[in-house]
Design goal:
This protein has about 180 residues and is α+β, with helices and mostly antiparallel strands. It has four helices and six strands.
C-alpha cells in the first residue's frame, strides 16, 4: 500500500519537473531555439494549427531560425501569427522561407526573463508540495484506519519528505542552469 503511494507520488512529482522543463524551454534566451515557437498558432486552411504542422523549422546558427512553409500561401499567416504571439521577434519573408533573427537580449530583458524563470520554478515547487500534502494525508488516513502502524506512518512521512526534497532540489538545479543560460552573454 505504502509503496504504491510512494510510486504514485514520485511519478506525479516527475511530471511536475517535466512541466517545469517544458516551460523553461519556452523562455527566450540569446540563442535560437525552436521551443520558443511552440505556442505559435497559425490560422490556416480554416482552422488554428500549430506552426510545426504547416512548416519545417530549423536553426542554421545560434542567432537565427528558418521557417519553410509547406504551402507558400500560408507564409503571410505564419508571419502574422509570430507577430501576434508577442515573442519580440520580427519575421522576414523572402517569398520562399521566413527568417527570424534572434537579437541579443538587453540586460533589462535578461533580468526580466530570470524573474519569469523563477516564477515558473516556484509554480513547480508548489505543485510538488501539493503532491506531498496529498500523499501525507493519504498516509495519515491509512494510520487512522489502522491499515498501518504509527511507526510505519512516521517512517512513511519521513520518506515522503525526502522524496519531496529531492524533487525540489532538481527544480532548483534546473533553475540555476536556466539562469546561467539566460545571463550568458
Amino acid at each position: 500500500m505504502l509503496k504504491e503511494q510512494f510510486r504514485e507520488s514520485k511519478a506525479n512529482m516527475n511530471s511536475a519537473i517535466q512541466a517545469v522543463e517544458h516551460e523553461f524551454s519556452t523562455i527566450r534566451t540569446g540563442r535560437a531555439s525552436l521551443a520558443i515557437l511552440d505556442k505559435v498558432v497559425v490560422d490556416a486552411y480554416g482552422s488554428q494549427l500549430p506552426l510545426k504542422q504547416v512548416s519545417t523549422l530549423s536553426t542554421p546558427d545560434a542567432r537565427s531560425i528558418i521557417i519553410q512553409p509547406w504551402d507558400k500561401n500560408v507564409a503571410p499567416a505564419i508571419e502574422k501569427a509570430i507577430l501576434a504571439a508577442n515573442l519580440g521577434l520580427t519575421p522576414i519573408n523572402d517569398g520562399k522561407v521566413i527568417r527570424i533573427s534572434i537579437p541579443p537580449l538587453t540586460e533589462e530583458r535578461r533580468l526580466e526573463m530570470v524573474k519569469i524563470a523563477k516564477h515558473m520554478a516556484e509554480e513547480g515547487r508548489v505543485s510538488i508540495r501539493n503532491i506531498r500534502r496529498h500523499t501525507k494525508d493519504e498516509v495519515k488516513r491509512m494510520e487512522k484506519d489502522h491499515k498501518i502502524s504509527e511507526d510505519e506512518c512516521y517512517k512513511a512521512l519521513d520518506k515522503i519528505q525526502q522524496i519531496t526534497d529531492d524533487h525540489i532540489e532538481k527544480i532548483n538545479q534546473l533553475l540555476k542552469a536556466k539562469e546561467e543560460e539566460i545571463l550568458e552573454v
